[in-house]
Design brief:
2 domains; alpha+beta; 5-stranded mixed β-sheet; Nucleotidyltransferase, domain 5; flat
C-alpha cells in the first residue's frame, strides 16, 4: 500500500519521453500525449568560445549563412553520435522542450527517456547515447533499435512466429529488416537515404540546367515534386539558385519528370538491397512476406508512388505506413508499456 502511495506522490515529478534521434531530423514525443516536436538535428556553435548558440530549427537556418567563427553542425552521422558534446546540447534542448510541454515546472521533474538508434550501433555508441541523455537531465535512459520501434509503431505482431519486412528510409540510412519472434532474421543497413536523394537532386540540377542549389532547396524540391512514377501533366515548380557560369542569381522551372530521373539511381540501389535481404531470408519467411507484404516507413518513403513502384519491381504487396515519418516515434512511445521486454530484447542474440 505504502509503495503505491509513494508512486502516486512521485508521479507528478516523472514522465516518459521518446526521442527518434535522426541524422536529419529529431522527433520528440511524450507518453500519453504523442508527438510534440520535430526539429532538424543541427546545433550552431561559436568555434572561438565553444558556446552553443542555437539548436534545431534556429540552428538549421544558419547553415551556409554563418560567419567564419560560427558553425552549424549535425552531431549524428548515419543516426550515430559522432560528437558527444553537441549531441548533449541537442538532447538537453529536446528534454527541456518536453518538460515545458509536460507542464511540469518542478525542478524535480526528470523524465525516463527512450531513444531510437540504428541496429548497427555498437555497444560503445549505445552507452554514449545513454550517457548523453542522462547528462542532459534524464532520470533513466534506454535505447531501442529503430527497426523494432518502427515495427511496433506500425502495429506489426513482431513477437509472433511469422516474417514481417520493414524498409525504413531515414535521412542518413535505409534500414531493411525482417523480424520474427521478436528478433531480427535479416538486417541490412545501407548509407543511402534522404540525404543522398537531396544530393542527387543537387547534382542533376547542376548538370542539366547549370544551376547551383543548396541542400535545403533540394529537400524542398524532393517534398513538392518527388514522384518516382511520372504521370500525365507532371507538376512543375520554379527553382532559384546561382547560375554556374555567371555566378549570378538565376531561376529555372523543373518538373516531376526531372526529379524522377534524379532519384531513380538512388531508389534502384535501395531496390537492390531489398532483393538481397529477401535472398538471405529462409523460404518460410519469404512465403510470409509474399502474403503479408512489405511495409515502408520513414520520411524518405513519402516519395509519391514509391509503394506502387516497388510492388511492380518486386511482385510483392507494398504498404506505406500511416504517417510513415512518425512510425519509429510511435513505436518508442508504445514500448514504454513493456520496457522490460525491450531491455531483454537488446540482450538476446539474433535469430
Amino acid at each position: 500500500m505504502w509503495i503505491n502511495k509513494i508512486k502516486r506522490w512521485l508521479s507528478p515529478f516523472s514522465f516518459d519521453v521518446g526521442i527518434d534521434l535522426g541524422t536529419a531530423n529529431t522527433r520528440v514525443g511524450i507518453k500519453g500525449v504523442g508527438l510534440i516536436k520535430i526539429e532538424p538535428s543541427v546545433v550552431a556553435i561559436n568555434k572561438t568560445t565553444q558556446e552553443v548558440l542555437a539548436v534545431g530549427e534556429k540552428a538549421k537556418e544558419m547553415l551556409g549563412k554563418t560567419p567564419a567563427n560560427i558553425v552549424a553542425v549535425r552531431p549524428l552521422r548515419d543516426g550515430v553520435v559522432v560528437d558527444f558534446e553537441t549531441t548533449l546540447a541537442m538532447l538537453r534542448h529536446f528534454i527541456q522542450v518536453a518538460k515545458e510541454r509536460a507542464a511540469s515546472s518542478s525542478i524535480l521533474a526528470r523524465p525516463r527517456v527512450l531513444i531510437g538508434v540504428p541496429f548497427t550501433i555498437t555497444d560503445v555508441e549505445k552507452e554514449a547515447t545513454i550517457d548523453a541523455a542522462l547528462y542532459a537531465g534524464a532520470k533513466e535512459a534506454y535505447v531501442i533499435e529503430e527497426p523494432i520501434a518502427a515495427a511496433i509503431g506500425i502495429g506489426l505482431p513482431i513477437q509472433e512466429p511469422q516474417g514481417n519486412m520493414i524498409v525504413d528510409i531515414g535521412g542518413g540510412t535505409t534500414d531493411i529488416t525482417i523480424i520474427s519472434l521478436g528478433g531480427l532474421v535479416v538486417d541490412k543497413t545501407i548509407p543511402i537515404a534522404g540525404d543522398e536523394m537531396d544530393t542527387a537532386i543537387i547534382e542533376y540540377v547542376k548538370n542539366t540546367y547549370g544551376l547551383l542549389i543548396g541542400p535545403q532547396t533540394a529537400e524542398d524540391i524532393k517534398k513538392t515534386l518527388g514522384n518516382i512514377l511520372v504521370e500525365k501533366n507532371p507538376k512543375k515548380s520554379l527553382v532559384h539558385g546561382t547560375d554556374i557560369n555567371t555566378r549570378l542569381p538565376h531561376s529555372i522551372e523543373i518538373s516531376e519528370a526531372d526529379v524522377a530521373e534524379a532519384l531513380y539511381p538512388i531508389i534502384a540501389r535501395i531496390t537492390d538491397a531489398i532483393k538481397e535481404a529477401l535472398e538471405e531470408a529462409p523460404p518460410e519467411i519469404n512465403a510470409d512476406i509474399r502474403q503479408r507484404g512489405i511495409y515502408i516507413t520513414g520520411g524518405g518513403s513519402q516519395i509519391k508512388n514509391l509503394d506502387k513502384f516497388w510492388q511492380k519491381e518486386l511482385d510483392i504487396p507494398v504498404k506505406r505506413a500511416t504517417e510513415p515519418h512518425l512510425s519509429v516515434l510511435k513505436g518508442i512511445l508504445k514500448a514504454f508499456d513493456n520496457l522490460e521486454y525491450i531491455k531483454k530484447l537488446q540482450e538476446r542474440p539474433l535469430i
